[in-house]
Design goal:
The complex is a heterotrimer.
Chain A: E1 2-7, H1 14-23, E2 27-32, E3 43-46, H2 66-76, E4 81-84, H3 86-94, E5 100-102, E6 110-118, E7 134-141, E8 145-147, H4 150-158, E9 162-167, E10 186-190, E11 196-199, H5 217-229
Parallel strand pairs in A: 1-2, 1-3, 3-4, 4-11
Antiparallel strand pairs in A: 5-8, 6-7, 6-9, 9-10, 10-11
Chain B: E1 2-12, H1 19-30, E2 43-51, H2 54-69, E3 75-81, E4 86-87
Antiparallel strand pairs in B: 1-2, 1-3, 1-4
Chain C: H1 20-25, H2 30-40, H3 46-55, H4 58-61, H5 66-69, E1 79-81, E2 88-93, E3 96-104, H6 106-111, H7 113-129, E4 134-144, H8 150-170, E5 174-181, E6 190-200, E7 215-220, H9 230-233, H10 242-245, H11 255-271, E8 274-279, H12 284-296, E9 299-303, H13 316-321, E10 327-332, H14 337-346, E11 350-358, E12 362-367, E13 370-376, H15 377-382, H16 395-401, H17 415-423, H18 432-435, E14 446-448, E15 455-458, E16 465-471, H19 474-479, H20 481-499, E17 502-511, H21 518-538, E18 542-548, E19 552-553, E20 556-557, E21 561-570, E22 587-591, H22 602-608, H23 620-635, E23 641-644, H24 649-659, E24 667-672, H25 678-683, E25 690-694, H26 699-708, E26 713-720, E27 726-730, E28 733-737, H27 739-754
Parallel strand pairs in C: 4-5, 9-12, 17-18, 24-27
Antiparallel strand pairs in C: 1-2, 2-3, 3-6, 4-6, 7-10, 7-11, 8-10, 9-11, 12-13, 14-15, 15-16, 16-21, 17-21, 19-20, 22-25, 22-26, 23-25, 24-26, 27-28
Helix pairs in contact in C: 7-8, 7-11, 8-11, 11-14, 20-21, 20-23, 23-26, 24-27
The chains are: A alpha/beta, B alpha+beta, C alpha+beta.
């Protein structure tokens, strides 16, 4: 199972993502954003961080990177692509996912553990979870407020493409559970065909009890398992 | 009283490093626009307000810039009238 | 000093003539200028004067503090690199070394809080990665005036954003720090940033320029006019109109470039293509080049027209003294310049050869091949005059200390109300508003996040971890500097043992007023002496640090604030303890004794607007015994939690243990019966006390261990379910509140001030 972790100038979660993929048995490789060609890879991971300092708009400059043309081809051919935090922002900027991530409602960077409800346990990223399961996962972002036009938002809901939603510890929608003001408490969405997932929370930081949570592991085991069975 | 629309352009002070402009510049060059020799990124702020006269509006917005809209340590600003004056009461 | 004398250099066209006024503007006294003339054997040129001025500023030359700093213990078997390098380095086991240092950015933050704080973080990161270590954690130690001032709120929110945005972007977790709000810091905020970096022993590289003919390369960002004379600026008092006159000096941070520079530097060091690397920090190219030459016992020759610049028409003077951020000076091995360039190019950065190492012991600057400065390098770096001054305590401090506090020993009104007031004081209250703006979990190593006694990061691939804390109660130091400094070191050590870390070494940041004043010099000297005694007693040598003097506005100095950044080592990450209570039914045991002082307490500040009285005394032997006992208990795995008692006293510490991070609060039922007034029992800030919670079956063992180390210990109550509330009996007095009331006071305090609609800007 070969996994490419793309490093953009300013990525800073690439190492964490690499370690997470390795922990579940993935054969992870770093790829610099100027490298080309994803032939032979089974999945592509876009890490968090501040590609190009988040200058202009988060993800706007990174999506111009040479490797992104290959990522788009890979995704359009059905290859699994996971973007976390800045990776999600890059996916939106590149058009692989709809919508955009605006400044947090508080206008402040938010870093803490949040609770997520798994809305879909039938995607290739979430098969090892159960629908309705509550996860504890860290977030760390300044621009995670998901927004899109009305038709897109309606399509996301009606097509069941909202994979994770911010909830409180008991799994309910509540005031203060949503850290950024995202529409319908969206924390993660897929594209229409379900092979591209973008999410703001950091499952790669929830892989060990020592660090506070193991709730991220199933996301990576799901991905690995889906690749081995496909 | 009339209503005025004003545009405030806030930009990094000359000589001060503009990390955002630098990154955009670099990116434009690598996309092939070799002729781009400098990029500075600022912001534009649009204000609609009632005032006695155009001069009064300009002056008020100048004060707003010094107090809040621009950071006098790192940013310069320019204010210009962009909208036609009309009676606020109409 | 070497015998090298300066060659004659004609004045450069367009440079100002050197007059007594120009000399004074450069912060040099007439005697110091004469010393410059002696070293040079002639009058310096304008460029040379600028170089001396920067290198002999307090910031670079430590002229008022060096003799005192020499009193501090700096050696231990585990110290790999002591003071004098970019950062100190200690052995932390399993072949790993820890580089760590603290640095101030007080003056820049007073002028432009966001950029001042951001560039402070940038500078300290570079000090760490130029040692060959990868930065793994940041801490920030901050001081502001009271939050009821709009200007203070502006400074506070700007500094927090600056610290956060920079560290978040580079991707270094913030694991802790401290903040104090007190009118003593009204005009001069204190912004100290500390960084920890890990490396294997063999990856250590130092910043010495050796090998005549080796090329010197400027790496990273281009040089602009920002921050010219920042080092001299940092060594002067601020005047009321500082905001205006200081404008051209503002440095702008670019954390994105820093991240690239970090990766490129570590790759450069690993490549073996370079022999030395140093940040161009305070005093820019001047200090980095001359210090590297000084350490290597060599000379340097630099061509100014080869330095990549951001603006046209920069003079050698400006290029030499620019403090543009995110730049490095690198000594390459001859013939390997292209390798350096290739690595920098991969990271989309520039590298340019700007000169070479020489054997003649000179700091020589050329412009288009013409010499514009020619200075003997060693006297420049090591010949800075150092001063020992007369110190004398200010009479008003003696009076404050001797003030009769007995009227404050009887609380006015309801004790519970007073308690909630103290708990809701920003000094005691939760700092989540701050650290929720900091990425604390990036790099997946943060084992104890901010909010605990110390931050902890594990060392991947081992069972070990390193812990760090920053501490100093400026009020204590203000009231009695030696005791206050002892307390700062003691509190840092207690904070480390609370998580199970062995206190190992310190870095210090001496933030003081103008040392030319006798009462300030007294504070400085006494603080250093206190630090010396405590560091010797705890075997925590000082491996480096920073001195920030002249923190005064219109003649009013800050509280003397010798911040201690202490690091510790944890052998077994599975044994880490945290501060929050974990189980209802656990016993609460207090280790240590209340020695009955109310001086300098938060209680006095909150209820009587007073900073007065004797600060708490420090018993070094007792502290050491306490540290050993807690470490032993940690090792035996009999503690469920451990928390130091500090601001707000015992009752605040109990509340913090009960509330934790707010997610799973527990109640308490505690009774104290000691021969003290209830107010002193509850709110006194006696040193040497740690609160632990213990499963009932382990309580006897904990008490026995305490006896073995001769540490006073008593069970004072039990942890209850949250709905039991917070209930304390103190002799004939009592207080009780629901956990919701506590949570409102504790978690709501800072947000209610900062997030209020009118709470922004000045």
């Amino acid at each position: 199972m070969k996994v490419a972790v793309i490093t953009f100038p300013g990525s800073n979660c690439d190492y964490d993502l690499y370690k997470a993929a390795q922990q579940v048995g993935g054969d992870a490789t770093f790829m610099w954003h100027r490298e080309r060609g994803l032939a032979g890879y089974d999945a592509v991971l876009l890490p968090g961080g501040f590609s190009y300092g988040d200058y202009l708009r988060a993800g706007a400059i990174a999506r111009m990177s040479p490797i992104m043309a290959d990522v788009i081809t890979f995704a359009n051919a059905g290859g699994p692509v996971l973007g976390i935090c800045n990776g999600f922002q890059i996916l939106c900027e590149s058009g692989l996912l709809p919508g955009a991530l605006m400044h947090n409602e508080s206008m402040k960077f938010q870093s803490k553990d949040v609770f997520l409800r798994v809305e879909r346990a039938d995607t290739l990223f979430t098969a090892d979870y159960e629908a309705g399961q509550i996860l504890r996962i860290p977030i760390a972002h300044g621009e995670g407020n998901y927004e899109a036009d009305k038709e897109t938002l309606e399509a996301l809901e009606s097509e069941g493409r909202v994979v994770f939603r911010y909830v409180d510890s008991s799994g309910e929608k509540s005031e203060g559970a949503n850290p950024n003001g995202s529409w319908h408490d969206i924390a993660g969405i897929t594209n229409e065909s379900g092979n591209v997932l973008g999410m703001m929370p950091h499952p790669e930081r929830a892989m060990e009890e020592l660090l506070g949570s193991t709730d991220g592991i199933a996301l990576f085991t799901s991905l690995v398992a889906s690749l081995q069975t496909s | 009283m009339s209503q005025y629309r004003l545009e405030v352009r806030v930009k990094p002070r000359p000589g001060l490093l503009d990390p955002q402009g630098k990154a955009v510049h670099h990116s434009l060059n690598s996309l092939g626009w070799d002729g781009v020799s400098d990029v500075r990124v600022g912001k534009a702020i649009y204000i609609d307000m009632d005032a006695e006269s155009a001069d009064a509006a300009l002056e008020a917005v100048g004060v707003m810039c010094r107090k809040l809209l621009a950071n006098p340590v790192t940013e310069d600003f320019e204010v210009s009238l962009v909208g036609e004056a009309k009676d606020a009461g109409s | 000093m070497t015998n090298a004398t300066a060659m004659p250099v004609p004045p450069r066209e367009g440079d100002p003539e050197i007059t007594a006024e120009v000399v004074a503007d450069h912060g040099l006294s007439p005697e110091e200028y004469e010393r410059v003339q002696r070293i040079m054997g002639r009058d310096p040129t304008f460029t040379e004067l600028g170089v001396f001025s920067a290198m002999w500023s307090e910031h670079c030359g430590y002229k008022n503090s060096k003799r005192l700093l020499q009193l501090l213990p700096t050696k231990a078997p585990w110290v790999i690199q002591g003071p004098g390098e970019n950062a100190g380095v200690i052995d932390v086991g399993d072949g790993f070394a820890l580089a760590f240092k603290i640095e101030s950015h007080n003056h820049p933050s007073a002028v432009e809080p966001y950029q001042g704080a951001a560039t402070g973080v940038g500078g300290i990161l570079r000090d760490i990665f130029t040692m060959g270590a990868r930065p793994v954690a940041v801490l920030d130690s901050l001081r502001f005036g009271d939050l009821d001032s709009g200007r203070v709120r502006y400074l506070f929110s700007g500094v927090v954003s600056g610290v956060g945005d920079y560290g978040n972007c580079v991707g270094i977790p913030n694991i802790g720090g401290e903040v104090q709000f007190d009118r003593g810091y009204e005009g001069n905020p204190i912004v100290n940033a500390m960084c920890l970096g890990l490396m294997k022993h063999e990856e250590l590289i130092t910043a010495a320029a050796t090998g005549g003919g080796s090329p010197l390369m400027a790496v990273g960002a281009r040089t602009g006019r920002d921050g010219i004379h920042g080092a001299t600026f940092a060594s002067e008092e601020l005047s009321e109109d500082a905001d205006e006159s200081s404008r051209p000096q503002v440095q702008v941070g670019d954390p994105f470039t820093e991240k690239l520079l970090l990766e490129a530097s570590l790759e450069l060091i690993a490549s073996g293509a370079i022999s030395g690397i140093q940040d161009m920090g305070a005093a820019g190219i001047t200090s980095s080049a001359s210090e590297m030459a000084g350490r290597g016992g060599s000379g340097v020759e630099l061509e100014m027209t080869d330095v990549p610049v951001r603006e046209e028409g920069m003079t050698p003077y400006e290029i030499l003294l620019s403090e543009s951020q995110e730049r490095m000076l690198v000594v390459a091995h001859p013939g390997r310049e292209d390798e350096v360039r290739e690595i920098l190019e991969k990271w989309e950065l520039e590298a340019a050869v700007i000169g070479q190492v020489t054997d003649d012991g000179k700091f020589r600057i050329l412009e288009n091949g013409k010499v514009v400065a020619d200075i003997p390098a060693l006297p420049l770096t090591d010949g800075c005059p150092t001063y020992e001054r007369e110190g004398k305590e200010a009479e008003e401090i003696t009076a404050l200390r001797e003030m009769d506090l007995s009227e404050h020993m009887i609380p006015e009104g309801d004790l519970t109300k007073t308690f909630l007031l103290v708990l809701g004081s920003p000094n005691v209250a939760s700092k989540q508003w701050i650290y929720h703006q900091y990425d604390t979990t990036v790099r997946t190593a943060t084992t104890v996040r901010p909010g605990g006694d110390s931050g902890v990061v594990r060392i991947r691939g081992t069972n070990r971890a390193v812990a760090a804390t920053t501490d100093c109660n400026g009020r204590f130091v203000y009231l009695e500097p030696r005791t206050g400094a002892l307390a700062a070191v003691a509190e840092a050590a207690r904070n480390l043992v609370c998580v199970g870390a062995l206190p190992t070494a310190i870095t210090n940041n001496l933030n003081f007023g103008n040392p030319l004043k006798a009462h300030i010099y007294y504070q400085l000297r006494e603080s250093v002496l206190g630090m010396r005694d405590a560091c010797s007693a705890f075997e925590t040598p000082v491996t480096g640090g920073n001195v920030s003097l002249f923190n005064e506005t219109d003649g009013k100095a800050i509280y003397p604030t010798p911040v201690i950044g202490m690091v510790g080592v944890i052998d077994d990450v599975s044994k880490i303890t945290r501060h929050a209570f974990v189980n209802a039914g656990d016993d609460i045991v207090l280790l240590g004794t209340n020695t009955g002082e109310l001086g300098g307490s938060e209680y006095l500040y909150v209820t009587a607007d007073l900073v007065a009285g004797e600060p708490p005394s420090v018993d070094l032997e007792g502290e050491r015994a306490l540290q050993q006992a807690v470490l032993k208990m940690n090792h035996e795995e009999v503690l469920n939690s451990a928390h130091d008692c500090s601001e707000g006293g015992l009752v605040a510490a109990l509340a913090q243990c009960a509330l934790g991070d707010g997610e799973a609060p527990l109640g308490i039922d505690v009774a104290i019966d000691e021969d003290l007034r209830p107010v002193v029992s509850l709110f006194g800030e006696s040193q040497g006390r740690i609160l632990v919670s213990v499963s009932p079956e382990n309580t006897d063992q904990v008490l026995a261990l305490a006896r073995r180390y001769e540490v006073p210990a008593q069970k004072i109550g039990t942890v209850t379910a949250a709905d039991g509330g917070f209930s304390m009996k103190v002799r004939d007095a009592s207080l009780s509140a629901s956990m919701a009331e506590l949570a409102d006071a504790y978690f709501g305090a800072i947000p209610s001030i900062m997030d209020a609609p009118e709470g922004s800007g000045s």
